[in-house]
Design goal:
single chain, mainly alpha, two-stranded antiparallel ribbon, 56% helix
């Protein structure tokens, strides 16, 4: 009987050829890496690796900084320091907008937000706060810096 090349024998030969080609490619890559390492050790910078390419990107151009908006609390401290009389949060909001120190970004109750912020500052800073509670809902200027 004649011998036939079975499919598995052909696959083995193809696999061996693929492995040989892969090994040759791996060997080339290994030699290239070794050469690059030797050049780095010798101080030559002829070859640039991918890691160095990423590190050498041009710095981003920064935009000029916009002037910071005055916070409602800072504006209220300015208004109340100049007023010399006890004021409510609603009155502080009106004065801040009239003087152009601060404008509500569109909230429904900016006076409630300001009131809460003033109370938080008084609780956090105590005697060093910029506000003092005068009466229910009324504030006066606190310690000056």
């Amino acid at each position: 009987m004649g011998t036939k090349n079975s499919g598995t024998e052909k696959n083995r030969k193809a696999g061996a050829a693929t492995k040989a080609a892969s090994a040759a490619g791996t060997e080339k890559a290994r030699k290239a890496v070794i050469a690059e390492i030797q050049q780095r050790l010798e101080g030559k910078s002829g070859v640039v690796s991918n890691a160095n390419k990423k590190a050498r990107k041009a710095p981003k151009v920064t935009k000029p900084a916009k002037p910071k908006r005055t916070s409602a609390l800072d504006a209220a401290a300015q208004v109340i320091a100049g007023a010399g009389k006890p004021m409510r949060a609603k009155d502080l909001i009106e004065q801040m907008e009239a003087k152009g120190l601060w404008k509500s970004p569109g909230g429904k109750t900016p006076e409630a937000t300001l009131y809460a912020a003033i109370i938080r500052e008084i609780a956090a800073k105590g005697a060093d706060a910029r506000f003092k509670k005068h009466d229910k809902g009324l504030f006066v200027a606190g310690k000056r810096r």
